Amino acid sequence: MNEQLMHFLWKFRKFGFNELYSTNGELIRVVSTGIHNGNAGPDFFNARIEIGGQLWAGNVEIHIKASDWYLHGHEKDKNYQNVILHVVWEDDVEVFSANNRLIPAFEIRKYVSCSALTNYKKLMSAKKQFINCEDSISDINPLLRHRWSERLYFERLQHKTKKIEKELQLNNNDWDDIVFSSLIRNFGFKINADSFASIAGAIPYGVIRKVKASRQSFEALLFGMAGLLDAGLPDAYFIALRDQYAFLKNKFNLSNESVVAPSFFRLRPNNFPTIRLSQFCSLYSNEEHLFSKVIELNSMEACYKLFHAVASSYWDSHYTFGKKSALKRKKKTTRSFIDLIVINTVIPVKFKYAQYTGASFDEEIISMIGALKPEDNSIITGFRQSGIDVSSAFGSQSLLHLYNNYCSKNKCLQCEIGNKLINE
């Protein structure tokens, strides 16, 4: 037995509907189990329970053994003074609150549903290669899976937009700055995301506003802050950028000491930081009021048009400074790259701005994410092999959140699918 399972048994009333009694013989009637608390303090808030004919309103604490109350020091903690019932698996000792009040105990093991325990043990002890329910997840009603997928996707969005919330507090609600920092981070992909974000963090956005109109000056600024202009190369374009960066660094009193150096390792040439930074500069130099245009986006075709960016002509024949490539061609942002920008920047920004202004954006989000192809990685492959069809980025994003926040942490009791399997 574990407390996570006991929380599940209490929350979903898996203790039968017959007469219930406290360990001292008082009749118990559970009007409301309360609100599950995932933070510090009692496990369930605002429960309503009739004990011995008296209706009580307060909190419920859950332990495997009643003596855990003292092990955790609750008898000294005023946050536990309003506990009205102690739900335990084994009542091995009487417990008292900080104000010396005896707290009634309910020994749930005497009433628990045997089928729920059996199904839980079966689920958690299954021999698995991927997830606990890999042999049964495809049997779950598709409507339930879709409803759970929607909730998972919006959970993922809420998680992504927490960073936006913090940045808004720091930049006085400057949404242009939000779009800039989010976009540059995502132009760095996973490998250079932190590096590109550190570049944005080292340059006040007021400086960006002044410099971005000049494509070459903007490239000089970003390349210089990234430390890509530190070498001494006999390359005319490199020298021009280096000199321009020296001027801008002095003019705006900039420092790149906090910037994380970008990596070229394990990257395809088209994803080299040099190419991505140049494309980013192209986007920002060509577009005025980018934030407003992001908010107005309502179709993928509009996204592909807005985020179509071409690296400057120097990069037609280069991937790194001073070294010509054999093949000369334009380095453009691809549709698959723009799909990632939509997933990781456009939708989170539009979602958070809708919350900020009190607008509704949910249906548009589902439509936009549903029009994108799903990601292809080992996690999505695992779900496909378990019989789950993944036809769009809506599905893949939901499943990534499911795996990373529930499956991999054995949180089957907090999962709609796990709940269904245990309740059968």
From TrEMBL:
It comes from Zhouia spongiae. It holds the Pfam family DUF2851. This is DUF2851 family protein. InterPro entries: DUF2851.
